[in-house]
């Protein structure tokens, strides 16, 4: 009798990628790119897999922690009145007449054995440490991305001495890149459009404080030194590799604040990088005194369009709806040229200095000052300041000194190739900025100079080398661009493959050290939120520091800066930039206008001028008025000269 053997069935796939899930397709389960996404050349992202069950010893540790907590509570209760106790309790269900509204602490993230061991409850000091860390987790670095404040951060906060002999107060700002490659002003996915606009804002509107998780206690025990508020000659140090190109620093100079920028490079960065400055950025550039020069060297785009692969129009936003005299229209100028412009302005200022080939290797602080250790061609030396500001890009040394090598967030599983090219898009009736919607052939083509240089950014298969992507470029151009051009039909000036990041530092302030722009947060380039958001960071930080300098605010305003800018990244920049990218490849172009609410709003704006104006100013949501946190009357004299 022939033996019966069962055919071996393929193993069951227990997890599918997000792209296959959304399409209800079978997924091979192969990581990092499944067979289906590889075949269709689409981004392949995977849902987060959560651990099942508690770690070993968790239940016993939890029991011990609960017993200790109850013991402390029982010993504390005899010293607490019933009235005080009542304020700590949630209101009873159905009860409406609360004289004082109950405000609970934010729900704590689940903590583990390691966290409990770091915050023992056996001393009053330990209990206070636990209290501060857990009632304000964002400020303490416990924002869900890491369980405990990093040792480096605690070391910096507790470090108490400086060997620097420089006696002048100062503030140090390391700088590097702000923003990504990008282009266009997309409105928020959940944009609430009004039917009319009374006037255009020329100042940032005050946010509803109830929607902003702002704290009133400074995260730094040392208040700003009296010298910072009184001294007549102060400096600001800037640390970075691409210093002047990315930050509009002249405003502090206009307030009599000296600024010193430390750059690891030997000269200005020549890479064009990002080029589009939305209204939130042009507002800050106008305050910096450079907007008129930017307008002269650059141009204001007429609008941007979404198209199908055959170049047919889906929807768009026309910037012509803005009045001719509106000062903060979007401007376009490659970032290397803005850097040159800013450098020219800085050189005219007697209280400003740019130091090239100054690479910051270490930072420190105490209650009176902060300092940076810098490597130069002549050796290593230390510079001190009232504040150190890190604008030194995605690989920020300042951020690493504060929080270690981790940069909370993720690298998107999608490959982007950014190119700068001269090609005749006019013959295809392209607008100044164009976004092609297609599952595998999506791309962006945006004019970035007056003489017709375009930024073309397209997707490609993940996992190849830089050399392979460069070798694939001619075939990809022929495949995706209108007219199927051959290499002789265009002139490429730059090509740069890169992976997109969505990341945010645990805090933008640790004592006298602050972060801004790419050093603080990253997003993908679609929509231009990185560059504009980074410049808006600098504007808010300027207002905060000037408030302290002029005696209008205490240093808790720097906590507000951190909280406000982190909220803007979390609630606007991160979700909006993700949605902007998804919109290009994750929908059927033939049904995009029918299914995409944003496209429908754009379509309505073609016949509604007020709506078109509001859409053109979509990134005004990145602005914030920090002066609402000024909490002092200026009683100081006018002898203050610099920061």
Can you tell me about this structure?
The protein has 19 helices and 20 strands. With 643 residues, it is α/β, with parallel strands linked by helices. Among the domains are: 170-185 and 197-296 and 320-409 and 502-584 and 609-629, FAD/NAD(P)-binding domain; 411-501, D-Amino Acid Oxidase, Chain A, domain 2.
Structural class: alpha/beta
Helix content: 25-40%
CATH topology of one domain, which one?
FAD/NAD(P)-binding domain
Number of strands: 20
Strand content: 15-25%
Strand order of the largest sheet: 6-5-14-15-16-13-17-20
The helix count comes to 19
Largest sheet: 8 strands, mixed
* Head-to-tail CA distance between termini: 95 Å
Mean pLDDT over the residues: 78
**Regions with little confidence, pLDDT below 50 for 5+ residues:** 95-109, 143-171, 175-235, 240-250, 636-643
Shape: globular
Q: What's the name of the CATH homologous superfamily of one domain?
A: FAD/NAD(P)-binding domain
Keywords: DNA-binding, FAD, Flavoprotein, Nucleus, Oxidoreductase, Transcription, Transcription regulation
GO molecular function: DNA binding; DNA-binding transcription factor activity, RNA polymerase II-specific; FAD binding; oxidoreductase activity; zinc ion binding
Pfam families: FAD_binding_3, Zn_clus
Protein name: Zn(2)-C6 fungal-type domain-containing protein
In short:
By secondary structure, this protein is an alpha/beta fold.
Write the topology of this structure.
Elements: H1 18-23, H2 35-40, H3 58-76, H4 82-87, H5 113-118, H6 124-135, H7 151-158, E1 170-174, H8 226-230, E2 235-240, H9 250-254, E3 259-263, E4 276-277, H10 279-287, H11 291-297, E5 303-307, E6 313-318, E7 331-332, H12 335-347, E8 352-355, E9 359-365, E10 370-376, E11 379-385, E12 387-390, H13 397-403, E13 409-422, E14 433-436, E15 443-447, E16 453-460, H14 466-480, E17 491-504, E18 509-510, E19 513-515, E20 521-522, H15 529-549, H16 556-585, H17 592-595, H18 597-605, H19 609-616
Parallel strand pairs: 1-2, 1-3, 2-12, 3-8, 5-14, 12-19
Antiparallel strand pairs: 4-7, 5-6, 9-10, 10-11, 13-16, 13-17, 14-15, 15-16, 17-20, 18-19
């Amino acid at each position: 009798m022939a033996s019966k053997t069962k055919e071996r069935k393929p193993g069951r796939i227990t997890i599918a990628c997000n792209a296959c899930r959304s399409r209800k397709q079978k997924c091979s389960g192969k990581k990092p790119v499944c067979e289906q996404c590889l075949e269709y050349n689409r981004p392949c992202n995977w849902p987060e897999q959560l651990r099942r069950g508690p770690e070993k010893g968790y239940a016993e540790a939890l029991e011990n922690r609960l017993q200790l907590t109850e013991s402390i509570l029982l010993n504390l209760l005899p010293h607490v009145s019933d009235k005080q106790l009542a304020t700590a309790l949630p209101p009873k269900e159905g009860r409406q007449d609360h004289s004082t509204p109950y405000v609970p602490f934010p729900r704590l993230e689940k903590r583990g054995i390691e966290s409990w061991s770091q915050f023992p409850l056996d001393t009053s000091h330990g209990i206070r440490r636990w209290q501060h860390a857990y009632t304000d987790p964002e400020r303490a670095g416990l924002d869900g991305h890491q369980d405990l404040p990093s040792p480096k951060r605690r070391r910096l906060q507790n470090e108490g001495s400086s060997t620097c002999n420089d006696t002048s107060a100062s503030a140090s700002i390391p700088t590097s890149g702000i923003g990504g490659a990008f282009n266009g002003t997309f409105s928020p996915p959940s944009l609430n459009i009004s039917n009319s606009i009374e006037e255009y804002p020329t100042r940032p509107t005050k946010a509803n404080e109830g929607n902003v998780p702002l704290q009133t206690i400074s995260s730094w025990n040392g208040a700003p030194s009296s010298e910072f508020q009184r001294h007549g000659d102060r400096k600001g140090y800037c640390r970075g590799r691409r210093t002047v190109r990315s930050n509009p620093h002249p405003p502090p100079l206009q307030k009599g604040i000296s600024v010193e920028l430390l750059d690891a490079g030997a000269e200005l960065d020549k890479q064009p990088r990002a080029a589009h400055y939305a209204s939130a950025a042009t507002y800050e550039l106008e305050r910096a005194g450079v907007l008129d020069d930017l307008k002269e060297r650059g141009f204001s785009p007429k609008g941007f369009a979404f198209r199908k692969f055959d170049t047919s129009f889906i929807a768009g936003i026309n910037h012509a709806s803005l009045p001719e005299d509106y000062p903060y229209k979007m401007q376009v100028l490659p970032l290397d040229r803005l850097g040159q412009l800013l450098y020219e302005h800085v050189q005219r200022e007697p209280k400003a200095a740019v130091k090239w080939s100054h690479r910051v290797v270490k930072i420190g602080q105490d209650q009176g000052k902060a300092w940076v250790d810098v490597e130069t061609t002549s050796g290593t030396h230390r510079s001190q300041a009232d504040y150190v500001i890190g604008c030194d890009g995605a690989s920020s040394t300042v951020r690493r000194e504060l929080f270690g090598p981790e940069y909370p967030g993720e690298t998107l599983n999608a490959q982007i190739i950014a190119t700068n090219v001269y090609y005749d898009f006019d013959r295809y009736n392209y607008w100044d900025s164009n976004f092609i919607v297609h599952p595998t052939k999506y791309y962006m083509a945006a004019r970035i100079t007056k003489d017709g240089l375009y930024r073309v950014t397209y997707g490609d298969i993940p996992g190849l080398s830089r050399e392979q992507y460069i070798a694939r470029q001619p075939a990809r151009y022929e495949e995706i661009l209108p007219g199927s051009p051959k290499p002789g039909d265009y002139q490429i000036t730059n090509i740069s493959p890169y992976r997109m990041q969505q990341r945010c530092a645990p805090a933008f302030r640790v004592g006298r050290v602050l972060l801004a722009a790419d050093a603080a947060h990253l997003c993908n380039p679609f929509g231009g939120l990185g560059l504009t958001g980074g410049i808006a960071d600098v504007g808010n930080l300027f207002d905060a520091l000037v408030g302290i300098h002029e005696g209008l605010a205490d240093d808790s305003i720097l906590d507000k800066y951190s909280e406000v800018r982190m909220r803007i990244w979390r609630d606007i920049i991160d979700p909006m930039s993700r949605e902007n990218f998804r919109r290009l490849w994750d929908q059927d172009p033939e049904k995009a206008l029918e299914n995409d609410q944003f496209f429908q709003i754009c379509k309505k704006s073609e016949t509604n001028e007020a709506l078109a104006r509001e859409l053109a100013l979509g990134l005004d949501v990145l602005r914030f008025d920090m002066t609402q946190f000024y909490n002092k009357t200026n009683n100081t004299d006018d002898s203050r000269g610099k920061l």
